[in-house]
Amino acid sequence: GGLNCLGRMLARLRARSMVALIDVHALPCNSGCVSDGIDCANPLAFSADALVGDIPRCTGACELTGGERVCDGQVYHTRRGGGGGSRRWVDVGLRSIASLAEWVAALPAADAAAVAGLQLANEPALNSDGHDDAVKAYYRAAVTAARAHLPSLPLYLSFIPPNDEAVPAFVAGLVAAGAGRLVIDQHWYLNWAGPPGSQLGWEEMHRRACSEAAQTWRPYVAAGLPLILGEWSLATNHDEHVDIADAAARAQLRR
């Protein structure tokens, strides 16, 4: 049903001279203790040894044990078996990439012209340390899976701390190895640039918005990598109320 709806939307976009970036926005357990529809304790999509089966939930008190969160024992049950080559959760994600790429490749030429690119993951392993190698291994395999069907369509890659070590060199290596056109999807949120509940003063807000934000993408620019700002927000103080009737607050917001 989802692909049928997407197919109809591509025709509508084309009629309006618009294009779409198709984004695999949430693989099964894309993040750890950040809900992507299901609230997994750990990012099983980027845990190389995580076998398909019941999924530990991020409920109750959680503790780190051996690099993984162990919570209160509640699980999501799955009827998905380990057949079809999807023995691990990472395999499920890679098969979804391959299937979606095959679908895009089979589109009528007119609809295919409305597809500007395919994004292979969104903020992989968000909120979970220690998955940098697994994220990069996933992307290597995902690029290969997508390129089997889409040899020239731009592929978009998203990274997020703490699993974003030496990304420019990694992406440059993929391109040098024949990955084709790869584009970085950079995200930046001012209101998530500090601990929850933190109170940012105006000067700190301005510093982060005007200086710190640009620093996050400068390494990609310096490396000559194509870049988009796919998600961007200057919302402040974790959605704390700002009285815009106050003249001083309005003056700060206009700076």
Automatic annotation (TrEMBL):
Q: Which domain of life is it from?
A: Eukaryota
For this protein, the record's InterPro entries field holds: GH
Q: What protein does this entry describe?
A: Glycoside hydrolase family 5 domain-containing protein
